[in-house]
Write a structure and sequence with these properties.
The complex is a heterodimer of chains A (445) and B (368). Chain A is of the alpha/beta class. Chain A is built from 14 helices and twelve strands. Helices cover 45% and strands 12% of the residues of chain B. In chain B, strands 3-2-1-4-7-10-11 form a seven-stranded mixed β-sheet. In chain B, strands 5-6-9 form a three-stranded antiparallel β-sheet, covered by helices on one side. Chain B is globular and about 75 Å long. The chains are: A alpha/beta (445), B alpha/beta (368). Strand 9 of chain A pairs parallel with strand 3 of chain B. Chain B: It comes from Lentinula aciculospora.
């Protein structure tokens, strides 16, 4: 079991280099073909994109060169930036966590501190290697933000992996437990290229790897695949579906009659909690606070107002929050992931809601399944972040090169702003998060 | 001063401004201050009065009408107070009854603030004896006083005209090279401050776009066209970026007596986030925004609400009739969250605002 080491990342270079030689040879011919076709295609859109910006041609020439000094007013239009990052994968490896070298180009003026943010991906990104159609579709849904949210993305990924596993045939002279992961790795890489991987996906994939490497060599292939799919189903059921139900039960107790519940953006779990409280005939009202870039709160508003009778809702954008927080009795928030130091990585704006709630001594309940726990430590929302695709940027045209539009998707809430975390194992303070995986016995699915 | 044609003309211009304020056709603290001043100048020049009290009463009643038209445009009331202050001052100078300042004591210092500079310099050298309530020539009082009053009002005008330049002149002392500045909304004061600093320093501005007015977009476009490296971000990412921000620079709508301020909504979020990262918060504002008001108990009802359509438009048809939509114009930012006010007359910490107010206005005008 050489490659079943405890830490190998799906997108890491060694995982890719582990690909079997025969597999590579088989795929290479087609890759070359695709690459040539892509390159031919790209020549046209790029010149088309470069045309509207007056400086488009000069910037496309400078692409691929060393990033300019801040002083030089390198005039890069957004289209040029997009095209250069689209071109790049042919020459540079597009890694999992942000494009280190690449993003210096477009952000040439001054702030390299933003360069590590994952750049928004162009939807028609390249398909490298033998990618299952379900994964290709999922990749598009991810990059288009059709599937968005930690839970939804995790469930979608696992469901797609079930199809990949069912369609997988172990090549001769190989065993499923050793080879399947090398087959899955490029699929994972493809998803990561579409959009940086969520912590939930990472945790689920890690678990899946464990299961694959632990599957019985003597089992017939179909049985082994069925067993794996069963494990995936169990994971979705235990860690997400059932966990959500338990969290609903716990959180709903905290909503009392005449309460005003404040929430930010849209968390699938918070939505379920509010709907459950409503179905229990609790009389309360909801304040939905929302903000660009995604304005997800509107979707929440739709689902809350379509109940019978509709839940009384107030809607406001984030700057109005200070005027509304005084009315709130409880703040319910969702999370993307929870980190070992208790900080919460969640939709941008969550930190300010929690901060202001703390200021006004309104309890902040963070609703979050334990599978969102990440062992890493997060000190601020700056170290790791992701940018929203350009389609969420304001419509106003960018008139000059000094203006850069930045739409970070996440921020990090310090543990001090969170009153309690509602998990399926109970209500715990955020600083005790690190004891949860141990308590759950991390090795079980 | 009955219903003569002149007071009718006064009535007309006052009514005109009142309706424009009420319909929000005129917004913004500097614009309203300028218009108020124009009206007051007109009123002073047209009104017939034979003693100080008459004039003050006229100005006060005009001021009251204007303030009631739009109580949230605090600079209207401030301008009225300032003019009243100048009128009294000129009267005292003209009637050779300078404000008694011969004996300087700590008690007086506490009561009256620092000795007034204006009071010591006589504005006018005309030494025509000032006679109040002259029954033979009722207009003599006005005839003597009006020119100096016009001069005083012109001074207030000049102050408003030059307010941006005066605030910006020390900008380079506040912004240093390679700093990252966060600002939000569209404030002309902040805009000229940042542009002025850009002549000397190479720095970066992050502008939060400030929904739902999205004034930040306008601001970002203007700053970047002046050659400042600008990043436009949604309001939601203020906290995430705050750890890299060196300074938060905000505009004010009104500066309150306790050192707090009313500012465009979003300011409180930025100021609170700044405090959690111990980032200094700098406010740029002209002294015409000094308001002798206290806001110790900020109530929901004290807010001023804007058009909900900007938050949730009618394109969300089925939502509109089921949902309350809130769009407050202003935040109240407490003095503890602010570090300094950069005004056209120097930099002041929030704790010394009350003293500035004592110097600028007369106590009896606090309630118009």
């Amino acid at each position: 079991m050489p490659q079943a080491g405890p830490k190998y990342e799906p997108a890491s270079a060694e995982a890719q280099s582990l690909t079997k030689a025969q597999k590579r040879a088989e795929g290479r011919a087609r890759q070359e073909q695709q690459r040539a076709a892509k390159a031919a295609q790209k020549q046209q859109p790029q010149s088309g994109l470069g045309a509207p910006g007056t400086t488009g041609s000069s910037s496309s020439k400078s692409k691929g060169t060393v990033p300019k000094k801040p002083v030089s007013e390198s005039n890069k239009t957004p289209s040029a930036a997009a095209s250069s990052s689209k071109d790049a994968p042919t020459t540079l490896r597009e890694g999992a966590g942000g494009l280190d070298g690449l993003s210096d180009g477009p952000k040439s003026r001054g702030l390299r501190i933003f360069s590590h943010f994952g750049l928004p991906k162009t939807p028609g990104h390249q398909i490298k290697g033998d990618i299952h159609p379900a994964i290709v579709k999922l990749g598009l849904q991810f990059s288009e933000f059709k599937i968005c949210g930690a839970n939804a993305r995790c469930i979608a990924t696992l469901t797609a992996f079930k199809m990949v596993i069912q369609d997988y045939v172990t090549p001769p002279h190989n065993t499923l437990s050793r080879h399947l992961m090398t087959h899955l790795s490029p699929q994972i890489t493809h998803l990561v290229t579409a959009r940086p991987m969520s912590v939930t996906m990472g945790n689920a994939i890690r678990q899946l790897k464990l299961e694959i490497s632990g599957s019985d060599i003597d089992l017939p292939e179909q049985d082994a695949k069925d067993a794996l799919c069963q494990k995936i189903d169990n994971y979705i059921r235990d860690r997400i579906i059932i966990a959500d139900e338990v969290i609903e039960d716990l959180a709903v107790k905290k909503i009392k009659d005449e309460d005003v519940v404040l929430t930010y953006a849209r968390s699938s779990l918070v939505e379920k909690i509010i709907l459950r409280a409503h179905s229990l005939n609790k009389r309360f009202s909801v304040i939905v606070v929302d903000s660009r870039p995604l304005l997800e709160g509107k979707a929440l508003l739709h689902s809350l107002t379509s109940t019978v009778p509709p839940i009384p809702c107030t809607y406001a954008l984030l700057p109005a929050l200070p005027s509304l927080i005084t009315d709130a009795d409880i703040v319910l928030l969702g999370a993307h992931s929870l980190h070992a130091n208790g900080s919460v990585y969640s939709r941008a704006g969550t930190a300010m809601v929690a901060m202001l709630a703390k200021e006004h001594t309104v309890p902040v309940m963070l609703c979050c399944e334990t599978y969102k726990f990440s062992e890493t430590v997060m000190l601020d929302g700056f170290g790791k972040n992701e940018l929203a695709p350009t389609k969420f940027s304001p419509a106003s045209p960018k008139s000059n090169s000094n203006l850069e539009v930045l739409n970070p998707l996440y921020d990090s809430t310090p543990a001090s702003c969170i009153t309690a975390v509602v998990t399926e194992v109970g209500l715990i303070p955020p600083t005790s998060i690190s004891s949860i995986p141990l308590a759950l016995g991390r090795t079980t699915l | 001063m009955a219903s003569d044609p002149q007071s009718a003309a006064n009535q007309r211009i006052v009514e005109d401004l009142v309706s424009r304020l009420r319909r929000r056709q005129l917004v913004g603290s500097r614009a309203t201050a300028l218009e108020t001043l124009l009206v007051l100048r007109q009123v002073v020049s047209k009104t017939r009065f034979s003693n100080l009290d008459q004039l003050v009463n006229v100005i006060q009643s005009v001021g009251r009408r204007l303030v009631e038209a739009q109580p949230k445009e605090h600079s209207v009331g401030n301008t009225v107070r300032k003019v009243l202050h100048h009128i009294r001052e000129e009267y005292h100078t003209a009637s050779e009854q300078p404000i008694v300042e011969s004996s300087f004591s700590i008690a007086k210092f506490v009561l009256q603030g620092q000795p007034r500079k204006q009071a010591t310099i006589p504005r006018s050298e005309t030494r025509v004896p000032l006679k109040e309530n002259d029954s033979n020539d009722p207009d003599s009082f006005a005839r003597v006083l009006k020119p100096v009053l016009m001069e005083a009002i012109q001074d207030v005008f000049d102050e408003l005209e030059t307010v941006y330049d005066n605030i910006s002149k020390n900008a380079k002392d506040h912004i240093h090279s390679d700093e990252i500045i966060l600002t939000l909304g569209m404030s002309r004061t902040v805009q000229s401050f940042l542009k002025s600093a850009a002549h000397y320093r190479n720095y970066t501005v992050i502008v939060a776009e400030t929904a739902p007015s999205y004034g930040g977009r306008e601001m970002a476009a203007s700053l970047s066209s002046a050659g400042i490296s600008t990043f436009l971000v949604p309001d939601s990412s203020i906290y995430a970026l705050m750890s890299r921000v060196n300074k938060v620079i905000l505009g004010a709508h009104a500066i309150l007596a306790n050192g707090g301020m009313f500012a465009t909504s979003g300011s409180l979020l930025a100021a609170t986030a700044a405090r959690s990262y111990s980032t200094p918060v700098v406010v740029c504002a002209g002294q015409f925004k000094l308001t002798p008001l206290w806001n110790l108990y900020h109530e929901y009802g004290a807010l001023d609400f804007g058009d909900p359509n900007a938050v949730l438009g009618f394109e969300e048809g089925d939502l509109v009739n089921k949902v309350d939509v809130v769009n407050p114009y202003y935040d109240y930012v407490r003095p503890e969250l602010l570090d300094v006010f950069i005004t056209n007359y120097g930099d002041h910490p929030p704790s010394s605002i009350y003293r500035l107010l004592k110097e600028t206005y007369d106590d009896e005008d606090n309630e118009l």
